[in-house]
Amino acid sequence: MAxxxxxxxxxxxxLVVTFPLVYSLWLSFTxxxxxxxxxxxxxxxxxxxPLFRWIGARNYTQVLTxxxxxDSLWRTLYFVGAFVIEATLVGFGVALVLNERFPGRxxxxxxxxxxxxxxxIVVGLLWIxxxxxxxxxxxxxxxxxxxxxGAIAFFKEGWTALNVLVSVYMWNQAPFATLLFLAGMQxxxxxxxxxxxxxxxxxxxxxxxxxxxxxxxxxxxxxVLATVNGFLMLDLIYVxxxxxxxxxxxxxxxxxxxxxFTFFKFGPGTAILYTLTALCLLLTVVYHKLVLAxxxxxx
Amino acid sequence: MTTRARYRGGNYRRRSVGSQVILYAxxxxxxxxxxxxxxxxxxxxxxYQKNLLARPFTLVPxxxxxxxxxxxxxxxxxxxxxxxxxxxxxxxxxxVVALVVTGVNLVMGTTAGYAYARFHFPLKTLxxxxxLFTRMLPTIVLIxxxxxxxxxxxLQNTLTGLVIAYCSFTLPFTVWIMKAYFETIPADLDKSALxxxxxxxxxxxxxxxxxxxxxxxxxxxxxxxxCWNEFVVAQxxxxxxxxxxxxxxxxxxxxxxxxDYSVIAxxxxxxxxxxxxxxAVLLVLVFQKYMVQGLTAGSVKG
Lengths: 299, 302
Fold this sequence. Notes:
The structure holds 2 protein chains of 2 kinds.
Chain A lengths: L1 H26 L13 E4 L2 E4 L7 H7 L2 H32 L6 H7 L1 H5 L2 H12 L5 H8 L13 H29 L3 H9 L4 H12 L1 H17 L2 H6 L11 H10 L4 H33 L1
Antiparallel strand pairs in A: 1-2
Helix pairs in contact in A: 2-14, 3-8, 3-11, 8-11, 11-14, 13-14
Chain B lengths: L16 H29 L3 H5 L13 H6 L8 H4 L1 H33 L5 H13 L6 H11 L5 H25 L3 H9 L4 H9 L4 H17 L2 H6 L8 H15 L2 H38 L2
Helix pairs in contact in B: 1-14, 5-8, 5-11, 6-8, 8-11, 8-14, 9-10, 11-14, 13-14
């Protein structure tokens, strides 16, 4: 009986997730050539799905001996680390502010959804309007205030560009962390604050000894979600830097995206993307462990 | 326990003037940080490029124009109208894809979510773990497979192909979010329906679904937003002009600016962005109460 309910969805997910996942994995062990139409293939109901030729782990060795891969991996780790820290701290700070009582608080909570709900293509373009060398508003303001002598080229120098990417992505994602933190703060009992205040705890002590411990599960959730999102981010790179200047903003996901869909080398491309998938799987296991631990703690 | 209990977040005492000033200053700063970039996008979309390039810079544009909008809507001729003309068609494509995916998700995902919330069946834990895994899966790793299979099936450059590909990242999410939502509805409701002579399906369809409005709206709105904003998959799978959705068209025009440096077109393209962003923002603002409720249920209970 239950299978009548879950059957359609699981079948659908099997078709659109499991099958492509396995097929992509297979591709990462073959010499994919998109122009060749002969060779081994699976014929099903008149459609011909090419299998290409098995070449073992050659794609993986080729990818993993490429210094570009390792450079982009270290860059990705920096990107993810910086992004996770920025998004969590800013998200938490904003949540603290919006948790106070002031007129217009519901409106502020609606505004929270603006950066987060925009397509990241739009997010990228809107920051170009602000950061552009020629017509960017920030450069205009800085010049007018006399704070800089010449316009700042935010995307010309690799290190700056990478950090700008982190901050723009943070602007897009931190509000979501704020939403989660706020939901957590709303569920903390008033009595805890009252008791802490009777004991003479000031604002910062209440924050540290009441708010922060109660939010621990949400902090974990935010950290894991931000980490996975950081590893997978592609669209902002596409609009803002295209992985450049040189390779200075090329992350592993961008490297895999370019190898697969700019150079159409599906073999090495899927191999790169699969290393990324392995990382995500690892994070999922960690996340699952944390969630399970919580369920057991709650009974 | 009268007025004090209404205070949230530990502000029991009346604030001093100093801390009130600090609070309002911070609130203003946060508000600016959240919406000023978006407002600036609007300002640029109603400005002439020459005024944006003018230095010294002014925050209030000296002239306001709707020319950029006229251009992208095809009301006036200009040199890049080939690119700008795709805006309306691609918005239509975005809308069709987003609506169909949302519909598929609500029918299939909701039903499965209900079963996960109510039934015990073999492989339940295993399939739930698989769902969690697919939620964390990078969608991009599936795209080479979709690319080759769609080429074999003739689904490249079709909206059907996009709908199929989008289900791969929305469906697991919908199942999960709806499972969490149904768990907040008392199981006694179903039980009394069963006692009254409904079968399981009737209990679900006639009794539980009608009281699940907020969950359905949240799940649906979120799916719609994910599809409406999606860029990478559409960019890769639908490359033929006229077959793709809004984000790839906008991204493509952004590339054109860099080549042309055409002064007039730049604002027009930024204007296009405003059009593209508006539906998503409206959707979220209208449904935000349900969105927050559903999302936190879906992710926190994870």
